[in-house]
């Protein structure tokens, strides 16, 4: 027999004053938070959060908690990383229960490792609460299984933020068949990503999808091939955040697309980035 609630409240004592919890908020849909994330949010006294943590997730936090926005857009760094690290240390030393709330999973393209290093170096008590990363969330809600026996035996998470044009990625490795590639932060680099994958041997007809504002009411899935997706997107004006999925699994979307964004709990993000212009300029 089940006794009490399915989600019993937990005492705040589980979250010690003067400690930091690095919490993954998942990809957008608040229903994708873990139970531990929800508990930490309920007992937090200070919450430092990113740009990709939506209002619906923050609404679940302790209403009396102090909220500090430390997000980073492409061109707007509200607080440098060293400043964020120091703020975490300072709040913890002030005896607060601190939640560092990050989109997706803290350890996947989230600089959670650097924050953990800084806290450990200062002797601050810290824990990591993993979250559903954008690749898992967006792929699931787009009906694109990241692995599938008929299409992909492995999956790779890759940064699409090409610092030095394209020189920083191992393109021959990425262009091997039988794998799924997931590019984070890849919208601006999309034309170059498609060009390089074809130049290194993937067929130009390889399916590719761009998932826009995945798991939210604004989710859109744009599909094409390595040859034509950049041009198609110029007309669609996708809004960040966006995730790129490349490989045979993308062809399953047409049959497996189950998610109805209009029924979603999370609204999505307002952004003013001129994505269409950026894509045209790069193409
Ligand atoms: C700095 S990375 C942080 C990733 C995060 N730590 C995670 O595990 O998902 C930000 C990138 O994640 C991707 N992303 C995060 N949430 C997304 C969403 N809801 N829909 C599409 N892409 C998303 C985008 O590629 C975005 O540029």
What does this structure look like?
Helix 8 runs antiparallel to helix 10. The protein starts with 18 loop residues before the first strand and ends with a helix. By secondary structure, the protein is of the alpha/beta class. The chain is globular. It has two domains: 117 residues, Cobalt-precorrin-4 Transmethylase, domain 1 (3-Layer(aba) Sandwich); 148 residues, Tetrapyrrole methylase, C-terminal domain (Methyltransferase, Cobalt-precorrin-4 Transmethylase, Domain 2). The N terminus is likely disordered. Bound molecules: S-adenosylmethionine (SAM). S-adenosylmethionine binds next to helix 5 and strand 10.
**Strand-residue proportion:** 15-25%
Q: How far apart are the first and last residues' alpha carbons, in Å?
A: 61 Å
Derived from helix and strand composition plus strand pairing, the structural class reads alpha/beta
List bound small molecules.
Answer: S-adenosylmethionine
CATH class of the largest domain: Alpha Beta
Give the overall shape. Answer: globular
Give a nutshell description of this structure:
This protein has 283 residues and is an alpha/beta fold. The protein is 28% helix and 19% strand. It has 2 domains: 16-132, Tetrapyrrole methylase, N-terminal domain (Cobalt-precorrin-4 Transmethylase, domain 1); 135-282, Methyltransferase, Cobalt-precorrin-4 Transmethylase, Domain 2.
Main traits of this protein?
283 residues; disordered N terminus; Methyltransferase, Cobalt-precorrin-4 Transmethylase, Domain 2; five-stranded mixed beta sheet; binds S-adenosylmethionine; five-stranded parallel beta sheet; alpha/beta; Cobalt-precorrin-4 Transmethylase, domain 1; 2 domains
């Amino acid at each position: 027999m089940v006794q009490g609630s399915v989600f019993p409240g937990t005492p705040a004592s589980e979250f010690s004053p003067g400690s930091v919890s690095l919490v993954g908020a998942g990809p957008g849909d608040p229903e994708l938070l873990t139970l531990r994330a929800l508990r930490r949010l309920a007992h937090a006294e200070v919450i430092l959060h990113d740009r990709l943590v939506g209002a619906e997730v923050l609404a679940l936090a302790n209403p009396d908690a102090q909220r500090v926005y430390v997000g980073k857009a492409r061109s707007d760094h509200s607080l440098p990383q060293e400043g964020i690290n120091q703020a975490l240390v300072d709040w913890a030393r002030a005896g607060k229960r601190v939640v560092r709330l990050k989109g997706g999973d803290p350890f996947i393209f989230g600089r959670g490792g650097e924050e953990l290093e800084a806290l450990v170096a200062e002797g601050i008590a810290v824990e990591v609460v993993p979250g559903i990363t954008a690749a898992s969330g967006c792929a699931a809600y787009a009906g694109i299984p990241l692995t599938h026996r008929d299409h992909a035996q492995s999956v790779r998470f890759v940064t699409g933020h090409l610092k030095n044009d394209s020189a920083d990625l191992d393109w021959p490795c990425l262009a091997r068949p039988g794998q799924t590639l997931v590019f984070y932060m890849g919208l601006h680099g999309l034309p170059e990503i498609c060009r390089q994958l074809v130049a290194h041997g993937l067929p130009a007809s390889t399916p590719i999808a761009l998932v826009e504002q995945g798991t939210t009411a604004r989710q859109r899935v744009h599909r094409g091939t390595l040859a034509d997706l950049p041009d198609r997107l110029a007309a669609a004006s996708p809004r960040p955040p966006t995730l790129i999925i490349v490989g045979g699994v993308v062809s399953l979307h047409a049959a497996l697309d189950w998610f109805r964004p209009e029924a979603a709990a999370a609204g999505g993000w307002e952004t003013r980035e001129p994505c269409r212009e950026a894509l045209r300029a790069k193409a």
